[in-house]
Specification:
The protein is α+β, with helices and mostly antiparallel strands and 106 residues long. The protein has 2 helices and 5 strands. Strand 3 and strand 4 form a beta hairpin.
């Protein structure tokens, strides 16, 4: 009987770990988490971001704008690939700047 309980527990733990792994998949992040990641990445690149707004794209991912403390507005395009557990982003400034980045779980 204990063997059956151990197998059931192992299955439940495995299922929980799988579900947690999916929740961290950047290819399936909701807008709030994607915006938070991109904001942090921009700050790491020296851009003082004051706000980010995103809307879902019809083909997946997000588009939106980020505002800098200097007054520049960045147009954001965020692409998500759930199968490859990857998020990529481009930020094009209205004054000619261009930044990009990505995040991938291996």
């Amino acid at each position: 009987m204990n063997f059956g309980k151990n197998v059931a527990c192992a299955c439940i733990v495995g299922l929980c770990l799988t579900m947690v792994g999916c929740a961290d998949n950047p290819g399936a992040w909701p807008a709030e988490k994607a915006a938070s990641y991109v904001k942090e990445a921009l700050i790491e690149q020296g851009v003082e971001v004051t706000e980010i707004s995103l809307t879902p794209k019809a083909d997946g991912g997000f588009e939106g704008k980020a505002k800098e403390s200097s007054g520049e507005t960045l147009k954001l395009i965020i692409t998500q690939d759930a199968a490859n557990r990857r998020l990529t982003w481009d930020a094009k400034g209205d004054r000619g700047s261009f930044l990009d980045g990505s995040y991938e779980l291996k």
